[in-house]
Design goal:
Layout (H helix, E strand, L loop, with lengths): L3 E6 L3 H11 L5 E6 L13 E3 L2 H10 L3 H7 L7 E4 L5 E5 L15 E3 H12 L4 E2 L4 E7 L4 E6 L4 E5 L1 E4 L17 E12 L15 E8 L4 H4 L7 H11 L5 H9 L4 E8 L12 E3 L2 H4 L8 H25 L3 H34 L9 H10 L7 H18 L1
Helix pairs in contact: 1-4, 1-9, 2-9, 9-10, 10-11, 11-12
Bound molecules: flavin-adenine dinucleotide.
Keywords: FAD, Flavoprotein, Monooxygenase, Oxidoreductase
Protein name: FAD/NAD(P)-binding domain-containing protein
InterPro entries: FAD-bd, FAD/NAD-bd_sf
Length: 404
């Protein structure tokens, strides 16, 4: 049997991890990644990601990249404080140990760029075809071989499977569904404060601190804004006006921001999104279930998808050596998708609920902190403990609110 040939569209965390895991298979599997960025350095990767036990952390271990991850991870990044505009603290969580994750609730941070570099270094540069923007994917012939068509013209075919790991605006998704992401109602800015390493080197990755300001906005807010949202000075002043009346300790951060400004509108797929199985093509990560970032689980889902998909492809490759071949892969893909849908719907529901709790509930965080905590903190807790945890939280906040 010739090896299975897999085309992965997108060199984000999901696509790169999948390639890495497939490369580690004892049965040979041929992998190519097509990425629209012209090179690994063309676009600022920006921001940081927190990795969780069942998702990103498990994946880094399985990919044999645990030590590299630990060399760059910031366990102190697990610290979290929820405050309101008067700086009343509604929730405070300290950072974790610097060496090992906690059993439950671990969420060490890593810079997005560093995570990409670690994964990229592990698969080898030659696997990624940079500057290959995919326009569409088709499945041809009785055997359902995948053909990838490029925006600049030309195509490559003969793939046993094409995996859409191409994020929110996935072109591969078009091969299985016409559904498109819709505007979540939330937009805002990511800023950063440079050179923080002089003041707090132990908590920093690339030496900067990210500051984000998200709020309810109409879909056309960037176009209709009375200031240039891409201009740092104008954006800073615009956000300061928006947050006038908030505690100075919070708004003072805006005076310190000095690097890039990235205005963003957040889009999401419907919470019940799924697709009819189609031979020769599947999706993972944001391409399958893009959501707002307010539960911090998007990349963890992408990495878990990559793990599950890698197991399915590797099993198919092993069985195909003994059996007839392609149908084995198709059966495994059906099973991967059947298991993916309920898992991603649960994650989408948590994220959608968390977004509604904090952005669409009058009087938040006072009026919704108990629900938000139980949703976000409870989801990776052992199921038997969840009701007890929720009851404890509701009681705690009932009394807490009497004093603030
Ligand atoms: C502000 C913000 C903060 C976040 N914070 C967190 C967090 O703390 N924790 C967490 O778990 N998640 C977080 N997320 C979500 C997380 O970033 C995503 O879920 C994750 O990056 C998805 O990974 P992916 O590999 O599926 O897609 P992506 O990271 O989007 O990668 C897709 C890749 O495909 C390439 N591509 C796109 N179109 C094409 C094309 N047509 N042809 C070829 N290549 C293409 C892109 O260039 C990119 O390299 C955050 C998201 C945002 C917006």
């Amino acid at each position: 049997m010739p090896p299975l040939t897999i085309a992965i569209i997108g060199a984000g965390p999901g696509g790169l991890l999948l390639a890495r895991l497939l490369q580690r298979s004892s049965t040979p599997i041929a992998v190519a990644i097509f990425e629209s960025d012209p090179s690994p350095t063309t676009r600022s990767q920006g921001g940081t990601l927190d990795l969780r036990p069942g998702g990103g952390l498990k994946a880094m271990r399985e990919a044999g990249l645990w030590d590299e991850f630990c060399a760059h991870a910031r366990w102190s990044g697990e610290a979290l404080k929820v405050v309101d505009k008067k700086l009343v603290t509604w929730l405070s969580r300290s950072g974790g140990s610097q060496t090992e994750p906690r059993e439950w609730g671990a969420a060490p941070e890593i810079d997005r760029r560093v995570l990409r570099d670690v994964l990229l270094g592990s698969v080898g540069e030659e696997v990624v075809r940079w500057g290959r923007k995919v326009a569409s994917v088709e499945v041809e012939g009785e055997m359902g071989m995948g053909v990838v068509r490029f925006a600049e013209g030309g195509e490559e075919g003969g793939f046993d499977l094409v995996v859409g790991a191409d994020g929110c605006w996935s072109r591969v998704r078009g091969a299985v569904s016409e559904v498109k992401p819709y505007y979540s109602g939330i937009g805002g800015f990511s800023f950063s404060i440079s050179e923080c390493e002089r003041r707090a080197p132990e908590v920093l990755g690339d030496g900067s601190v990210n500051v984000s300001a998200w709020g309810l906005k109409g879909e056309a807010w960037m176009r209709e804004s009375e200031y240039d949202v891409h201009d740092l000075e104008q954006a800073r002043e615009g956000v300061k006006r928006e947050y006038a009346g908030w505690a100075k300790e919070l708004t003072n951060m805006l005076d310190a921001v000095d690097d890039d400004v990235a205005p963003r509108s957040l889009y999401m797929l419907p919470v019940d999104f799924s697709w009819e199985h189609k031979r020769g093509v599947t999706l993972l990560g944001d391409a399958a279930h893009v959501m707002t970032p307010f539960a911090g689980i998007g990349v963890n889902m992408a990495m878990q998808d990559a793990m599950e998909l890698a197991h399915a492809i590797i099993d198919a490759a092993k069985e195909a050596e003994e059996l007839a071949g392609k149908d084995v892969l198709d059966d495994k893909m059906r099973r991967y998708e059947k298991e993916l849908f309920p898992r991603m719907h649960a994650a989408q529901e948590i994220t959608d609920g968390a977004t509604k709790d904090m952005y669409f509930t009058e009087g938040a965080p006072r009026t919704s902190i108990h629900r938000w905590c139980s949703r976000v903190a409870g989801h990776d807790m052992p199921p038997l403990l969840r009701p007890l945890f929720t009851a404890g939280l509701y009681t705690y906040f009932f009394f807490f609110k009497m004093f603030v």
